[in-house]
């Protein structure tokens, strides 16, 4: 899962961890994540 916008906005180490967690969820639930979005607030 690679996206030019994501790689520009999210710090490298954080991006790697997010992708690791998505891959683990895909494997654990036998699904394929097609699209992700951040919807939380950092305020």
Report on the architecture of this protein.
- With 43 residues, the chain is mainly alpha-helical.
- The chain has one domain.
- The chain is 56% helix and 0% strand.
- The protein is built from two helices and no strands.
- The protein is globular and about 35 Å long.
- The N and C termini lie far apart (27 Å).
- The model has no long low-confidence stretch (mean pLDDT 82).
Could you give the topology of this structure?
Blueprint: H1 4-9, H2 12-29
Structure summary:
The chain is mostly helical and 43 residues long. It has helices spanning 4-9, 12-29. The model has no long low-confidence stretch (mean pLDDT 82).
- Taken in chain order, the helices and strands follow as HH
When the domains are counted, the total is 1
**Helix coverage percent of residues?**
55-70%
What's the end-to-end separation, in Å? 27 Å
Mean pLDDT: 82
- Uncertain parts: none
Coarse structural class? mainly alpha
**Major beta sheet summary:** none
* Rg value: 11 Å
The backbone outline, from C-alpha atoms, is globular
Total E-strand runs: 0
- Number of H- or I-type helical stretches: 2
Bin the strand percentage.
under 5%
């Amino acid at each position: 899962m690679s996206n030019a916008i994501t790689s520009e906005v999210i710090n490298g180490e954080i991006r790697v961890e997010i992708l690791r967690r998505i891959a683990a969820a895909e494997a654990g639930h036998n699904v394929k994540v097609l699209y992700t979005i951040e919807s939380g607030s950092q305020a």
